[in-house]
Amino acid sequence: MRKIINFLIYQTGWLVCVLGAARGWPWAGVVFVLLALAWHLRQADHPQAELRLALIAAGVGATWDTALAATGLVQFTNGVLIDGTAAYWMVALWVLFGMTLNVSLAWLKQHLLGAAILGAVGGPLAYLGGAKLGALSLPDSHLALPLLAIGWALITPLLCVLARRFDGFGATPTKPLEPSHV
């Protein structure tokens, strides 16, 4: 049941973020994601690990989407605080994606090739869906979509590996590396 709820929260959050941005309410998605994150952390056995993973996903996503925005491959219609950077609602979507990695998408952690394939297909489709709904545009989609596929094919397995380390729903999360004492 937890996996289904997690999946539904992700799907609902995606819609709230994208439609909110498209309708001029980019903050609506952020509010939804913050509430979803609070609920997610309350469900976790180790909330600090899940929070770290969500923040790492946000950082990776913000960097990726800022690179896309800075090159003009993606243009966000709302929620951009500094020109050429990722929209804040999009960064919230990365937090939401991070929240799936140890729950509804946990199976991907053991199937990194599957994670790469899912990323290569799902990532560009999500951006294309966002463009069709008016939250962003892909001025040169013939270049943007293949680059999105490559980027997501790399980012998704990377986040899955990090999810192994920061698993707030596992028996015990992996402890951070500590300096050895010689």
List the helices and strands and how they pair.
Layout lengths: L1 H21 L3 H18 L3 H24 L4 E2 L11 H11 L13 H22 L2 E2 L3 H25 L17
Antiparallel strand pairs: 1-2
Helix pairs in contact: 1-2, 1-4, 2-3, 2-4, 3-4, 3-6, 5-6
Classify the beta-strand content into a percent band. under 5%
Structural class: mainly alpha
- Put simply, the count of helices is 6
Number of domains: 1
Q: Kindly report the spatial arrangement of strands forming the biggest sheet.
A: 1-2
Mean pLDDT reading: 94
Shape: globular
What is the strand tally? 2
Q: Helicity range of the residues?
A: 55-70%
SSE pattern: HHHEHHEH
Largest sheet: 2 strands, antiparallel
Tell me the radius of gyration: 16 Å
Q: Compute the separation of the termini in Å.
A: 47 Å
- Low-confidence spans: 177-182
How does this model look, in words?
- By secondary structure, the chain is an all-alpha fold.
- It has one domain.
- The protein is built from six helices and two strands; from the N terminus they run H-H-H-E-H-H-E-H.
- It has a two-stranded antiparallel sheet.
- Helix 3 packs antiparallel against helix 6.
- The longest helix is centred in the C-terminal third of the chain and has 25 residues.
Would you summarize the structure shown here?
By secondary structure, the protein is mainly alpha-helical. About 40% of the residues are buried. It has one domain.
Task: Jot down its keywords.
mainly alpha, disordered C terminus, two-stranded antiparallel sheet, 182 residues
